[in-house]
Design brief:
This protein is α+β, with helices and mostly antiparallel strands and 135 residues long. The chain has 3 helices and 5 strands, in the order H-H-E-H-E-E-E-E. A 5-stranded antiparallel beta sheet has the order 1-5-4-3-2.
Length: 135
């Protein structure tokens, strides 16, 4: 039986020639190469390590700077602080790692284990969350 639609190898594209009708590859090497490539393509791409990106580094440095500022003021200064003073020393309000709602006080924005709450009058209260681990 002569087939005008001769099948070709899925890997190299060569005509399959004589053999079984359901054959897909011309030899074991092509079959193995095809299946290895297919498995590799179907595997989930590992997520890029975002910690190496310049944006991540910049934000992480801002968070560390915020934490250090809050920690120093928490340890060595009397509360409350004025927001303008902390902003002048470099506190960046845009970045924080978590928020915590304290009843009757309001929301605290935390930079790792130190957080701050800003009142409507511009006063800032700083708290340490001892349950938060900072390494």
């Amino acid at each position: 039986m002569n087939n005008t639609n001769e099948k070709a190898c899925l890997e190299c594209g060569q005509p399959l020639g004589a053999g079984r009708d359901d054959r897909k590859f011309c030899n074991d090497i092509c079959r193995t190469a095809y299946n290895n490539r297919r498995r590799k393509d179907n595997q989930k791409e590992p997520e890029a390590d975002h910690r190496d990106s310049p944006n991540f580094r910049k934000i992480y440095e801002i968070l560390l700077s915020n934490r250090e500022l809050l920690m120093m003021h928490s340890l060595y200064k009397d509360e409350p602080y004025m927001l303008r003073d902390l902003l002048g020393k470099g506190l960046n309000l845009k970045y924080f790692t978590s928020q915590y709602e304290m009843p009757e006080v309001g929301t605290f924005n935390f930079c790792f284990d130190y957080g701050y709450h800003i009142t409507s009058t511009g006063r800032v209260y700083i708290e340490e969350n001892v349950q938060e681990i900072f390494c």
